[in-house]
Write a structure and sequence with these properties.
Number of helices: 4
Strand content: 15-25%
Low-confidence stretches: 1-40
CATH architecture: 3-Layer(aba) Sandwich
Structural class: alpha/beta
Number of strands: 14
């Protein structure tokens, strides 16, 4: 699989990031000092640490611009797919924010189901409603409401998942707990899966293992990109 392409994204020189054009999408190659495995590949732990630090040092201006851009991109995808039922998540502090988008979806009568991590490593799903929030078994923010169970993910029109980074071929790097790999690996429906990341988190490659699940596409604050070679 390969991304289709795009141009004119502007890298952040202060962060030492250079841009590489990949077909019709733009991928970022950052000078990450990845820890290496015996096979010469970057370790997941080291790459996650680098990506987490890059998020932490983003300026207020960068975060504000990213939030506005991502909101626009997510709304456009909902309209493009004419989605009435979606899967998303409650973003945390340094993540690309989904909060305003979820409020918009609720106001437009779009059902958004959000994950609630369980002790057994699976995820239940609960419809989003503003103001109802707690912490789940993984310590992540989760909605409070009617629990639908893991099977609910197979009944949505589009799926938005968090990620630490994603390769241009669609391999997703999560945060190491495996909840989304298990959920996506059990899917049999045709709903497209989008990883939600910042532009600099679209990488040439990410380390992966057999259990890691790829995504169909990526959405960033500036664009959405397919991972199968087809234009969106």
């Amino acid at each position: 699989m390969a991304f289709v392409a795009g141009k004119n994204l502007v890298p952040n020189p202060a962060a030492g990031i250079t841009a590489l054009e990949i077909g019709t999408c733009l991928s970022y190659k950052a000078p990450y000092t990845w820890g290496m495995t015996e096979g010469g590949q970057p370790s997941k732990r080291a790459l996650r640490a680098e990506l987490r630090e890059r998020r932490r040092i983003m300026t207020t201006l960068e975060r504000s611009a990213a939030a506005e851009g991502l909101f626009t991109q997510l709304v456009e995808l909902i309209k493009r797919f004419d989605a009435a039922r979606i899967a998303c998540y409650l973003s945390t502090g340094d993540e690309p924010t989904t909060r305003a988008f979820l409020d918009w979806a609720h106001q437009h009568n779009i059902t958004a189901i959000l994950p609630v991590s369980r002790e057994d490593g699976l995820m239940d799903w609960v419809p989003y409603a503003p103001g109802s929030e707690s912490l789940d078994a993984a310590g992540m923010p989760a909605p409070v409401g009617e629990t639908l169970g893991p099977i609910a993910l197979a009944e949505v029109d589009i799926i938005f998942v968090p990620a630490a980074g994603v390769s241009r071929e669609g391999m997703r790097l999560g945060w190491g707990r495996g909840y989304y790999d298990r959920a996506l690996g059990s899917l049999n429906n045709a709903a497209p899966v989008y990883a939600v990341v910042y532009d600099h988190e679209v990488l040439e490659e990410v380390p992966s293992e057999p259990h890691d699940q790829p995504v169909d596409a990526v959405v960033t604050p500036t664009r959405s990109m397919s991972c199968d070679g087809s234009a969106l």
